[in-house]
């Protein structure tokens, strides 16, 4: 097996809940609670789940924007130590992020050329003239004109801003991009443009992607492997094809069946699973299996013990007591 | 793929509306008068003429016209008004600058370092803000003694928390914007973060506070002078002129009326322009 | 909330905050703030000058000064003096005015009712005019009458109290002779000072309530109310005003405190025998214990008003009550 | 066929003189779900607001008619409209939590419609509100009625909004992106609920969305909007089987599908969604359309009948299948 580019093992991110007269922690939100994940060079791995499942926290923890409570993150075989400035600088040469909302990802007061050149400037790469050339090159790469460099972000549409953000992320030739819902803020007719651009760039530069999304259709289209998260845990993981064709975990199954297909005939004949109730609060998760409050199959064992992630087929694992 | 031309969402550039324009003119005129006081004032503001005491506007003596009358020591009200503008504007400008810079720096430090620095600074801000500013100014001037420098120091000392609070809140929200988080992640130093990302994005809100404060500072200075705690005689100051005028309400209405009117027009102009700036920065009219 | 999750920020914890703990926390904070003010005033005064030098006659000898110093206890260590001062304040002992030779608290107590009367009058003007003006300006925004009101508010905001006071005396006392120019003889004496003092606060209340109502008008729940077929008046009265009250309450606390400070000038102009006049007299007589007492009272009032505002919020807004976060 | 419940005819809305809705027409029959689909800025929400008479201050209804069962809504006074809103016509919104008054208990907010439109008071109104909460599938409705919106999840708040909208049994419910802010499993619950309630009460629904999946799941008929105009209408099955406007066709082809081929380059619609006020001459889709010729760039194609079941606004409707 190829040496993974990124490997995360038993990662935990817990936030204290403060209360009382003196703001002491009275409990913890276990946003990410023991997650293992790895990404090979050139691979796209998707993290799927609903809001509050911890997928974005995981992304932020890998970047060192959030301090992990426990666990290890290794990049290129070397452990990532958070909180060390020099280490963070080096890490940002290899890992970059694309945010969901391109409007807030760009400083409104800087020209887009300045924004794209910022990673180069921070890392002291090249002379001013070289950086200018690089910015023009990057703009061309994402389908914009070199002449756009002097304009401010508000002169661009959402899709164009996302291109600019992608150009900035590529400035330092990173190996891994964390894509945090990169198309969900965009118009439908613009989404495929951006998805194609990302796929092209991956082919071209051999990039690895960690793709964070709640949109299963996009994930299915985009990712090689997928990890389904629920309340801070991975409940199912495997090759995208396998997981989508044969979902094992009842949550994955429900999630897939909840996605409305753009095809009324298929939609009518499809078996729909409608889950009862809401996602429990991450501050107060149920005992045992985290999905037990909404699971249509739940048995008494599910209330007592939390299931381990177990292999169900080649490279396909699921955390369910009942289906394995 | 070729991109189409970039579009500008907000193409309309609003000009200064006619309601604000005359007041902008007044403000500019007052500024010019203050700067050029020795050139525009018809008389020396401190020359007394006991033969020309309490004369009504238009009174003439020794070939000079007292356009706005004379005060109880026979000084020309117009000339004192002109020199008084200097004091008002200078005090306001100096204290706004001092308190603005200090408050902004302190507020940004609190937001930037968090932890106990934040707690300490913001508690201090709360405490100073909870004491009514004019009261704090009064006690401090009373202790330090009244003088031009002391008035500026006192006003700055009592007003900086306003800026600190705004700078703190704005910095916190800007620092949480993805572009700042990203820049931090890449290892940008504090100088870059502040100068390229944070300051340019919080400047607007601070300018709005500063314009409002400017008007308030003019009023505060006049208030302190009115109570005899401001710039000391014989230096001309509108507040002190009003205090004198109060004693002659029944006999010499002009002594109090003109400085009051000048003060009112100046503050009104500043407030109107401040409102206009605020509307431009935030069209919802916060 | 949504954005927070996307950025990986911690989700807002949903702690059930017991109501008494919330109040206790606020009261505790207010207490700390008052302590801070007392400390600030005490050290500010001691650092900026020797209080004894201000008390003794100009020609006093060194021995006189030292005798005075030990007689008044100023020769003891600063920390002891601070402690005595603190414990005195707890018993409403603000020290003694050496100029008037009376306990500070007695002097304050004799003037307090006048200031309260004036503040009451001014608040009636400020609230009674300011809030309706603000709400009307917001609801009828863009129309001629709203613009005219805004002009009025701006004028009120820009009017120095000492000038409007003088103008009113000129017009209503000197020329028309309708009202007494100064003093506190009867209820008519209260009219002019109340209006003058209330005018500035009126402008503030009008602006804040206008902004608050404008902000609320843009909220989605107003649209829901309209979609339900509610008349605008019902939406404003039943839904909007309560939501808009929150920022107004905050500013009201600050503004009442400012109003008390403004009383210094207004009372001076109208010779109204309240705390403001007492303060000015104390300053010109260099009566520092008295000044200190008045400032302390003002600051404490401000802090207590803020505390009341906080408690009011939590009564208005169940979210604060239950989550314990402001 | 009997006359439609709602009929929108050549509706025009302008903001500061710029058209945002530019002459659109559609009908909704009794009990029908019509989906108005389009991207941001195409005017679909403005259309909904003009039906409700709830246009934002800056917007003007500058032409056309809106008829509800023979009553011309666009000619009514504000007071007359108020009597209809929440009664005959109801609306729910994208952000359910923000759409509820944060300082009023859920139950009281639902009762309010009954108080205003039915004159119910006190216990009767309270009872009806709790029954309605139960009807929209809120467990423990007595307890929920006494809670504030912040104590409920987004999905619960949207159920409460639906309860509020339907309590007076309106004939038309307008739902503006009702599930966009919700998670996909909650979306499934809400869509299921809306469909069930339509079947039970016969309330027609104008469903505004940008999600073709939601359209396929919910709609009986579809009207596709682009840049302020309706460019295609058809019954849902016919539309998904065969698109006669290049925009509809491309839109369906560009979206990644759960049953599609992974990792392939998706077909794209070139260019950008035009901003309001910067709509091109002629057919507004022409700058992005692979079939466009000079005729398209000059003349606006009319919304023409399409095999008696729908209509299309394209000069090249016959060639669209080839894209």
TrEMBL record, chain A:
Q: Give the matching SMART domains.
A: AAA (SM00382)
Q: How does it sit in the membrane?
A: Peripheral membrane protein
Any one GO CC term of the record: plasma membrane
Q: Which residues belong to any copy of the ABC transporter domain? A: 6-256
Which subcellular locations apply to this protein? Cell inner membrane
- Kindly indicate whether the keyword Disulfide bond belongs to this entry: no
- Which molecular function term from Gene Ontology is one that the record holds? ATP binding
Alphabetical list of Pfam families matching this protein: ABC_tran (PF00005), oligo_HPY (PF08352)
Q: Which Gene3D superfamilies match?
A: P-loop containing nucleotide triphosphate hydrolases
What Gene Ontology terms for biological process does this UniProt record contain? peptide transport; transmembrane transport
Which keywords belong to this entry?
A: ATP-binding, Nucleotide-binding, Transport
User: Mind telling me which InterPro entries this protein's record contains?
Assistant: AAA+_ATPase (IPR003593), ABC_transp_ATP-bind (IPR050319), ABC_transporter-like_ATP-bd (IPR003439), ABC_transporter-like_CS (IPR017871), Oligopep_ABC_C (IPR013563), P-loop_NTPase (IPR027417)
- Family assignment? Belongs to the ABC transporter superfamily.
Name of the featured protein: ATP-binding cassette domain-containing protein
Source organism of the structure: Rhizobium straminoryzae
TrEMBL record, chain B:
Annotated ranges, domain ABC transmembrane type-1: 85-274
> Which controlled-vocabulary keywords does the entry list?
Cell membrane, Membrane, Transmembrane, Transmembrane helix, Transport
Location (main, coarse): membrane
Q: Name one GO biological process term.
A: transmembrane transport
* Compartments (UniProt record): Cell membrane
Record's Pfam families?
BPD_transp_1, OppC_N
Q: Which InterPro entries match?
A: BP-dependent_transpt_permease, MetI-like, MetI-like_sf, OppC_N
Q: What membrane topology does this protein have? A: Multi-pass membrane protein
Record-given protein name: ABC transporter permease
Which source organism does the UniProt entry give?
Rhizobium straminoryzae
UniProtKB/TrEMBL annotation, chain D:
State any GO CC term: plasma membrane
One Pfam entry for this protein is ABC_tran
Bilayer topology annotation: Peripheral membrane protein
Among SMART domains, the record links this protein to: AAA
Q: Where in the cell is it found?
A: Cell inner membrane
Where in this chain does the record put each ABC transporter domain? 6-252
Molecular function (GO) terms for this protein are: ATP binding; ATP hydrolysis activity
Q: Major location, coarse class?
A: membrane
The record's section on SUPFAM superfamilies has:
P-loop containing nucleoside triphosphate hydrolases
Superkingdom field: Bacteria
Q: Which GO terms describe its biological process?
A: peptide transport; transmembrane transport
Key words, A-Z? ATP-binding, Cell membrane, Membrane, Nucleotide-binding, Transport
Q: Which parts form a coiled-coil structure per UniProt?
A: none
Q: Which family does it belong to?
A: Belongs to the ABC transporter superfamily.
NCBIfam families, per database record? oligo_HPY
Name the chain's protein: ABC transporter ATP-binding protein
Species whose genome carries this gene: Rhizobium straminoryzae
């Amino acid at each position: 097996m190829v040496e993974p580019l990124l490997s995360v093992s038993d990662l935990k991110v817990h936030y204290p809940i403060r209360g009382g007269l003196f703001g002491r922690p009275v409990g913890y939100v276990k946003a990410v609670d023991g997650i293992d994940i790895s990404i090979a060079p050139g691979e796209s791995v998707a993290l799927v789940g609903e809001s509050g499942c911890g997928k974005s926290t995981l992304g932020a923890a890998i970047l060192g924007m959030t301090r992990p409570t426990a666990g290890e993150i290794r990049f290129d075989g070397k452990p990532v130590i958070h909180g060390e400035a020099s280490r963070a600088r080096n890490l940002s040469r290899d890992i970059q992020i694309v945010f969901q909302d391109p409007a807030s990802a760009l400083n409104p007061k800087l020209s887009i050329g300045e924004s794209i050149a910022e990673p180069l400037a921070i890392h002291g790469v090249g002379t001013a003239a070289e950086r200018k050339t690089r910015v023009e090159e990057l703009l061309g790469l994402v389908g914009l004109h070199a002449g756009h460099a002097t304009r401010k972000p508000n002169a661009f549409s959402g899709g164009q801003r996302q291109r600019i953000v992608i150009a900035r992320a590529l400035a330092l030739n990173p190996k891994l991009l964390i894509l945090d819902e990169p198309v969900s803020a965009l118009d439908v007719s613009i989404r495929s443009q951006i998805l194609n651009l990302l796929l092209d760039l991956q082919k071209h530069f051999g990039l690895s992607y960690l793709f964070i999304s709640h949109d299963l259709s996009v994930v299915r289209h985009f990712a090689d492997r997928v990890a389904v998260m629920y309340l801070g845990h991975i409940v199912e993981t495997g090759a995208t094809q396998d997981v989508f064709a044969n979902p094992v975990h009842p949550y994955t199954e429900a999630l897939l069946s909840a996605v409305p297909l753009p095809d009324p005939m298929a939609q009518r004949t499809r078996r729909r699973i409608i889950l009862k109730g809401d996602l429990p609060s991450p501050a107060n998760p149920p005992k045992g299996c985290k999905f037990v409050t909404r699971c249509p199959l739940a048995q008494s064992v599910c209330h007592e013990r939390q299931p381990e992630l177990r292999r169900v087929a080649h490279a396909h694992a699921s955390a369910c007591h009942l289906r394995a | 793929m070729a991109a189409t031309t970039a579009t500008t969402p907000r193409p309309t550039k609003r000009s200064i509306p006619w309601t604000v324009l005359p007041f902008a003119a007044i403000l500019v005129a007052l500024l010019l008068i203050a700067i050029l006081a020795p050139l525009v004032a018809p008389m020396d503001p401190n020359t007394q003429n006991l033969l020309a005491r309490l004369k009504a506007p238009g009174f003439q003596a020794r070939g000079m016209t007292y356009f706005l009358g004379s005060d109880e020591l026979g000084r020309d009200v117009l000339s004192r008004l002109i020199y008084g503008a200097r004091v008002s504007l200078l005090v306001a400008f100096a204290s706004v600058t001092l308190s603005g810079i200090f408050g902004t720096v302190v507020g940004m430090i609190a937001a930037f370092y968090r932890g106990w620095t934040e707690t300490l600074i913001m508690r201090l801000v709360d405490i100073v803000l909870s004491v009514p500013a004019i009261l704090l100014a009064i006690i401090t001037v009373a202790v330090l003694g009244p003088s031009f420098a002391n008035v500026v120091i006192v006003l700055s000392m009592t007003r900086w928390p306003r800026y600190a609070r705004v700078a703190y809140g704005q910095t916190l929200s800007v620092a949480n914007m993805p572009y700042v988080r990203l820049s931090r992640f890449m290892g940008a130093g504090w100088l870059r973060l502040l100068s390229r990302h944070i300051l340019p994005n919080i400047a607007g809100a601070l300018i709005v506070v500063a314009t409002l404060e400017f008007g308030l500072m003019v009023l505060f200075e006049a208030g302190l002078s009115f109570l005899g705690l401001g710039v000391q005689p014989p230096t001309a100051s509108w507040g002190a002129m009003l205090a004198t005028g109060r004693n002659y309400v029944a006999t010499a209405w002009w002594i109090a009326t003109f400085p009051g009117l000048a003060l009112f027009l100046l503050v009104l102009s500043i407030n109107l322009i401040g409102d206009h700036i605020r509307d431009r920065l935030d069209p919802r009219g916060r | 909330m949504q954005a927070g999750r996307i950025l990986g920020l911690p989700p807002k914890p949903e702690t059930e905050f017991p109501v008494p703990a919330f109040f206790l926390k606020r009261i505790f904070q207010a207490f700390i703030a008052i302590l801070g003010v007392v400390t600030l005033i005490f050290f500010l005064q001691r650092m900026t000058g020797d209080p004894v030098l201000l008390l003794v006659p100009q020609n006093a000898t060194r021995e006189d000064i030292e005798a005075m110093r030990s007689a008044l206890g100023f020769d003891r260590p600063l920390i002891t003096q601070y402690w005595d001062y603190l414990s005195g304040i707890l018993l409403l002992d603000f020290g003694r005015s050496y100029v008037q030779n009376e306990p500070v608290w007695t002097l304050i107590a004799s003037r307090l009712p006048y200031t309260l009367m004036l503040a009451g009058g001014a608040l009636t003007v400020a609230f009674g005019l300011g809030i309706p003006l603000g709400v009307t300006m917001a609801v009828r925004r863009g129309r001629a009458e709203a613009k005219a009101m805004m002009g009025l508010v701006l004028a009120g905001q820009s009017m120095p109290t000492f000038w409007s006071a003088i103008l009113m005396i000129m017009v209503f006392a000197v020329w028309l002779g309708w009202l007494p120019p100064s003093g506190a003889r009867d209820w008519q004496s209260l009219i002019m000072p109340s209006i003058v003092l209330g005018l500035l606060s009126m402008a503030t209340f009008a602006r804040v309530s206008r902004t608050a109502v404008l902000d609320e008008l843009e909220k989605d729940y107003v649209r829901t109310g309209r979609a339900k077929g509610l008349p605008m008046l019902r939406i404003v009265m039943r839904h909007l005003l309560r939501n808009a009250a929150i920022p107004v309450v905050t500013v009201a606390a600050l503004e009442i405190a400012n109003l008390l400070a403004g009383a210094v000038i207004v009372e001076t102009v109208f010779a109204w025998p309240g705390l403001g006049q007492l303060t000015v007299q104390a300053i010109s007589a260099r009566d520092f214990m008295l000044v200190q007492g008045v400032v302390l009272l003002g600051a404490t009032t401000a802090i207590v008003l803020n505390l009341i505002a906080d408690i009011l919020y939590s009564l208005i807004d169940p979210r604060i009550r239950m989550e314990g976060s402001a | 066929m009997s006359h439609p419940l709602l009929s929108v005819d050549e509706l025009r809305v302008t903001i500061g003189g710029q058209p945002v809705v530019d002459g659109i027409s559609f009908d909704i029959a009794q009990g029908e779900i019509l989906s108005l689909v389009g991207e941001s800025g195409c005017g679909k929400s403005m259309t909904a607001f003009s039906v409700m008479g709830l246009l934002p201050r800056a917007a003007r209804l500058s032409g056309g008619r809106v008829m509800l069962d023979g009553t011309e809504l666009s000619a009514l006074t504000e007071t007359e409209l108020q009597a209809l809103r929440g009664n005959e016509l109801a609306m729910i919104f994208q952000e359910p939590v923000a759409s509820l008054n944060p300082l009023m208990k859920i139950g009281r907010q639902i009762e309010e419609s009954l108080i205003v439109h039915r004159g119910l008071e006190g216990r009767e109104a309270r009872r009806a509100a709790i029954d309605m909460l139960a009807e929209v599938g809120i467990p423990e409705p007595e307890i929920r009625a006494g809670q504030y919106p912040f104590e409920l999840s987004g999905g619960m708040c949207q159920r409460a909004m639906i309860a509020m909208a339907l309590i007076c049994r309106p004939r038309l419910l307008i739902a503006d992106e009702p599930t966009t802010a919700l998670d996909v499993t909650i979306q499934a619950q809400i869509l299921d609920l809306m469909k069930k309630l339509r079947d039970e009460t016969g309330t027609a629904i104008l469903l505004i969305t940008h999600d073709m999946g939601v359209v396929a799941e919910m709609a009986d008929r579809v009207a596709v909007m682009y840049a302020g105009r309706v460019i295609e209408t058809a019954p849902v099955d016919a539309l998904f089987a065969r698109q006669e406007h290049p925009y509809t066709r491309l839109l369906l082809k560009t979206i990644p599908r759960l049953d599609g081929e992974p990792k392939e380059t998706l077909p794209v619609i070139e260019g950008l969604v035009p901003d309001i006020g910067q709509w091109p001459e002629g057919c507004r889709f022409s700058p992005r359309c692979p079939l466009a010729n000079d005729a398209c760039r000059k003349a606006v194609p009319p919304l023409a009948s399409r095999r008696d079941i729908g209509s299309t606004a394209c000069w090249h409707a016959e060639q669209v299948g080839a894209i």
